Amino acid sequence: MQIYLPIAEVSINAFLLLGLGGLVGVLSGLFGVGGGFLMTPLLFFIGIPPAVAVATGANQIVASSFSAVLAHFRRKTVDLRMGSVLLAGGLVGAALGVQVFATLKAMGQVDLLVTLFYVVFLGTVGGLMFVESLRALRRARRPGGALPKRRKHGWVHALPLKMKFRTSGMYISVIPPLLIGAGVGVLSAIMGVGGGFIMVPAMIYMLGMPTKVVIGTSLFQIIFVTAFATLMHAITTQSVDVVLAVMLLLGGVVGAQIGSRLGTNLKAEQLRILLASLVLLVCGKLALELLIQPSEIYSIGVSE
């Protein structure tokens, strides 16, 4: 069943869109990421213009993340204080990112830049996460092999403006969470992602938060930042396709509940290595798209 998307100006199979939304919803509940790092490239691959994919993909993340975070609230694995600090930085970053996106769209360079952003960030983060996860699995298999305890002190603990985060069991400066939130906000606006693939490893390895608390807290922040980025895109770039967003939302809400249940049956190290593998897979596909010569070298566009 074909459905016409008015802003994207293409017709797409409705069941394909529902399936994509469901897949990303499962990832949201399973890994604590919004899933935009996968959704936006997949929308590229099925023929959605990058500007529309970025703006609308951010909207889909809101619903799948909201559905998943409810399950984490029931398990009391959301640090609301840490989430609020990350959110403050994220809103500022998202506002800046939308302005950059609008400028690049006006210059006609947004498609190439978005793809390059994906290749660089996904390749770097996925590679680092994969290597670290393999080391963690090896340590866990050694005789007597519990994983080493998190470091109690580091550069994060030497910074001023400290705050106590009881749910995470930490007393650290608010500066690193604010900077992480701002960086993720910029990525959310430019790449159409929730930023969980950056935020989750940053919260674990930079801030030293427990993995179970990280997932729920990441989802809490993602909801508000992506909602704000979507609103800004709708006002500034007019690239949000409501029909596409609704189809993705319907699949995403169901998938998120499935993913949150599956996540309770896997160890933290296994979750991280699965996420890293997915990130690298998407990065490889995007890199090939940039390197391989297209069948049609020239395309016809309509100037706005």
Automatic annotation (TrEMBL):
The chain crosses the membrane at residues 12-39, 51-73, 85-104, 110-131, 174-207, 213-235, 242-259, 271-292. It is found in: Cell membrane; Membrane. It comes from the Bacteria. GO terms for cellular component: plasma membrane. The keyword Transmembrane helix applies. The keyword Membrane applies. Keywords: Cell membrane, Membrane, Transmembrane, Transmembrane helix. InterPro entries: TM_pro_TauE-like, TSUP/Inactive_protease-like. It is a multi-pass membrane protein. Its main location: membrane. Belongs to the 4-toluene sulfonate uptake permease (TSUP) (TC 2.A.102) family. PANTHER family: MEMBRANE TRANSPORTER PROTEIN MJ0441-RELATED, MEMBRANE TRANSPORTER PROTEIN YTNM-RELATED. This is Probable membrane transporter protein. It comes from Meridianimarinicoccus roseus.
